[in-house]
Amino acid sequence: MKYTDKQLLDFLQKKNDETAYTGKCLFRMSAYGRGWRLYETSQEGAKKFVREVIADAIDKEKEEK
């Protein structure tokens, strides 16, 4: 791979920090079963830090098993 995981996550965080919309992001599964989503949003539960959102998704998946 051309970039490290840190570089990839830092890129997403930088985009989130630009606050093109809200400066908060959310990870969720598609409501229509078409996969997962990581996006900038004003939805409840959205957070400022990309890594925190991903970590929360990992924790949630562990709890559901």
Any descriptors?
65 residues; two-stranded antiparallel ribbon; 43% helix; 15% strand
Strand and helix map with partners:
Layout: H1 5-17, E1 25-29, E2 36-40, H2 50-64
Antiparallel strand pairs: 1-2
| Overall pLDDT score | 94
- In the predicted model, the low-confidence regions spanning at least 5 consecutive residues are none
Give a count of the beta strands, DSSP E runs of length 2 or more.
2
Secondary-structure content class: alpha+beta
For the biggest β-sheet, the strand order reads: 1-2
Instruction: Specify the biggest β-sheet.
Output: 2 strands, antiparallel
Q: Label the overall shape.
A: globular
Helix content: 40-55%
| Quaternary assembly | single chain
- Distance between the ends: 31 Å
Order of helices and strands: HEEH
In terms of DSSP E residues, the strand content is: 15-25%
- Tally the helices: 2
Cα gyration radius (Å): 13 Å
Explain what this protein looks like in three dimensions:
With 65 residues, the chain is of the alpha+beta class. Helices cover 43% and strands 15% of the residues. The protein has 2 helices and 2 strands; from the N terminus they run H-E-E-H. A two-stranded antiparallel ribbon has the order 1-2.
What's this model, at a glance?
With about 60 residues, the chain is of the alpha+beta class. It contains two helices and two strands. Helices cover about 45% and strands about 15% of the residues.
